[in-house]
Specification:
Layout: E1 3-6, E2 11-12, H1 32-42, H2 46-53, E3 54-55, E4 60-61, E5 78-79, E6 83-84, H3 92-96, E7 100-104, E8 107-113, E9 132-133, H4 134-140, H5 144-169, H6 180-190, H7 193-200, H8 202-209, H9 220-239, H10 245-265, H11 270-283
Antiparallel strand pairs: 1-8, 2-9, 3-4, 5-6, 7-8
């Protein structure tokens, strides 16, 4: 879909009318930090929130509430005539809406989908409210810690994929003539969240989405760093001694599966990533 790129000083009708239109019929993806933040605000565990209020195995907020006049269902956390019940812990997608965000050349860029400002579809009264600059809006929405978490998980995703590359390319697996690993990498990129989660397994999904982290919970950067360290330790403990090519293959597939599932949670395209990573491996001597 076409997007409209924005400048930070651009003035837009960003003062919310609080009709709750954007709390109906949308898709909100959650990375592990956002899942934790929502659970903490609701005063339950991340596992409980994931089980009760999430779809796609824990990376998408449920929209299963009452329908509005347009027939769109409300977010599971939306309360009619009140608004978001977890407003303090709302994820980045909700804080930014109707804006989107992309990282290009290590710099954040903001935009909205289409050519007409999205809020005009269902909330035309925003035109009568004060305009805000993009910069002022994102500051008022306190997006900074959530942007940091999103960017940190983007790096974690690549770091996990790098471990999968090491298992394939630096252990002798690729040199053995293995052709199954890259085929499965590409296949996993096309699998549904439930299919990929089943392949990964319950224990690994828990480590990936609801890590047992008890320190530095208020700092997203430290949270994500501790999470990656936990993933590294878990991978090392599981695959410290691999004796056969089949074991190496299974390890490379599992670890890449973790990277691809995390990619979904931060809004990346797993099919494109899987193909890119497989093509890169081929360039380094892997076969398929």
């Amino acid at each position: 879909m076409q997007t409209t790129q924005l400048k930070l000083d651009e003035q837009l009708p960003l003062t919310c009318s609080r009709k709750g239109t954007c709390c109906h019929g949308n898709v909100v993806m959650l990375n592990p930090w956002e899942l934790y933040a929502l659970a903490r605000t609701k005063n339950i565990s991340s596992k409980e929130f994931r089980s009760e209020y999430c779809d796609m195995e824990g990376i998408q907020l449920k929209f299963n509430g009452p329908k509005n006049s347009l027939g769109k269902q409300a977010c599971s956390q939306y309360v009619e005539n009140f608004g978001c019940s977890l407003h303090a812990g709302r994820p980045l997608a909700c804080r930014l809406f109707p804006l989107g965000r992309q990282i290009q050349n290590e710099k954040a860029h903001y935009m909205f989908q289409g050519t007409e400002f999205p809020c005009l579809n269902g909330c035309k009264e925003v035109l009568k409210l004060p305009k805000l600059s993009v910069q002022t809006y994102i500051k008022e929405q306190n997006t900074a810690p959530y942007e940091k978490a999103q960017d940190a998980y983007l790096e974690v995703m690549q770091n996990i994929a790098d471990i999968a590359f090491e298992l394939l390319l630096e252990t002798g697996l690729a040199e053995s003539g293995d052709k199954k690993t890259l085929a499965l990498w590409r296949k996993m990129g096309k699998e549904s969240a439930s299919e990929l989660a089943k392949r990964i397994g319950t224990n690994w999904m828990d480590i990936l989405l609801t890590p047992a982290i008890t320190s530095s919970l208020n700092d997203p950067n430290t949270f994500v760093q501790n999470h990656f360290e936990l993933l590294q330790i878990s991978i090392q403990d599981k695959f410290s001694v691999l004796k056969t090519n089949m074991q190496l293959h299974e390890a490379a597939v599992l670890v890449m599966g973790l990277a691809l599932f995390l990619a979904r949670s931060i809004g990346a395209n797993p099919t494109e990533l899987a193909n890119y990573w497989a093509d890169t491996a081929v360039n380094f001597g892997a076969q398929e």
